[in-house]
Design goal:
36% helix; alpha+beta; rod-shaped; two-stranded antiparallel ribbon
């Protein structure tokens, strides 16, 4: 900045001030994004979730529920908790293995992955390949 006397001020210039604001904003955005990534939050459109896709597929804990004898008209099908696993792909693998174990043909509708965070049920998912 220049004073009326023609001397330059040693304080921050307007350009420097604007640069500091932009840099500060980018630093905050980066910290927020990094925090969300590491903590699994931030959303995943593929699974319609508040948690990140990476977290759901690789890090999240699930209770695997399976419905034996599932048919559209079957009122007798039962929900069985068959396993607790980490990650959506493993949830689906366990459901397929259980269907094979009990001699049932595989049905994508016969299982659900219950997302568990800090011991509480949060969301339900199926693995989408």
């Amino acid at each position: 900045m220049t004073h009326a006397s023609g001397k330059k001020d040693s304080t921050m210039t307007e350009d420097g001030f604007i640069g500091a604001i932009v840099f500060g904003g980018l630093a905050l955005w980066g910290a927020y994004t990094g925090y969300n990534y590491l903590n699994g939050t931030g959303g995943c459109e593929q699974h319609a979730s508040a948690y990140s896709c990476w977290y759901l597929d690789a890090k999240a804990d699930y209770d695997v529920h399976y419905w034996k004898n599932l048919r559209s008209d079957d009122k007798e099908s039962e929900d069985h908790l068959i396993a607790s696993v980490k990650g959506l792909p493993e949830c689906r693998r366990r459901a397929i293995a259980y269907a094979n174990k009990v001699g049932e043909p595989w049905n994508e509708r016969a299982y659900i992955c219950g997302l568990v965070v800090d011991g509480e049920f949060k969301e339900q998912h199926r693995y989408i390949e």
